[in-house]
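Quick one, tokens below. Sequence please?
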């Protein structure tokens, strides 16, 4: 599955004029799965008419995207770590991976993938502070496991989701767990399970759901 995960991200980045050679060659399967989910996010944004451009750690447009390979802070990144800038209806947003963001409790949480208001993200970098969860428009927890997803992952996702009031928030995994599905549904949370390259029906469903959510959230 590793090669398929790499190809999904490579194709998505190519569609916006970019690539991620260092990440694709060095990232482990967990991070590659995040990259795969990121490819779905890019497609959903394209489907609603957003345009995207990769930016480097220097704040300038780049043809190379270097994603974090460990959780980090928006103002304290290695100089080469970048993000995807999205423009939708003349508003700008940043797509980050593995970013620490403050929830409603002011406690920092590590978000696997999130969409932030661009102005807020810029201010955080300038002022040396962590992003505020109220400025998160979308978040996704990405979990790559074996055949079964541990129940504790579902409980952790429920706890995390209460810290962020974004309309669009979900957990995505290549595995599944009926107990987690039922737990999430009972709390009006959305899951994206058995999601991996080759499962086109699942992929299309996720992209379609996210496109509709983002139309309302952005």
């Amino acid at each position: 599955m590793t090669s398929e995960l790499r190809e999904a991200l490579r194709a998505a980045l190519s569609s916006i004029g970019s690539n991620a050679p260092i990440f694709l060659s060095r990232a482990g399967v967990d991070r590659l799965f995040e990259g795969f989910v990121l490819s779905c996010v890019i497609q959903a944004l394209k489907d609603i008419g957003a345009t995207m451009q990769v930016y480097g750690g220097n704040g300038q447009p780049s043809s190379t995207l270097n994603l974090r390979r460990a959780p980090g802070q928006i103002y304290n990144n290695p100089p080469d770590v970048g993000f995807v800038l999205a423009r939708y209806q003349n508003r700008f947003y940043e797509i980050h991976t593995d970013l620490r963001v403050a929830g409603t409790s002011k406690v920092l949480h590590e978000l696997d993938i999130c969409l932030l208001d661009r102005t807020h993200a810029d201010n955080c970098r300038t002022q040396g502070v962590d992003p505020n969860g109220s400025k998160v428009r979308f978040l996704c927890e990405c979990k790559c496991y074996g055949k079964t997803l541990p129940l504790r992952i579902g409980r952790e996702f429920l706890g995390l989701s209460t810290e962020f009031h974004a309309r669009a928030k979900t957990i995505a995994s290549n595995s599944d767990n009926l107990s987690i599905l039922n737990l999430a549904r009972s709390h009006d949370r959305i899951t994206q399970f058995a999601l991996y390259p080759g499962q086109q029906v699942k992929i299309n469903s996720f992209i379609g759901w996210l496109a509709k959510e983002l139309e309302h959230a952005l």
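The mean pLDDT is 93. The chain is about 40% helix and 25% strand.
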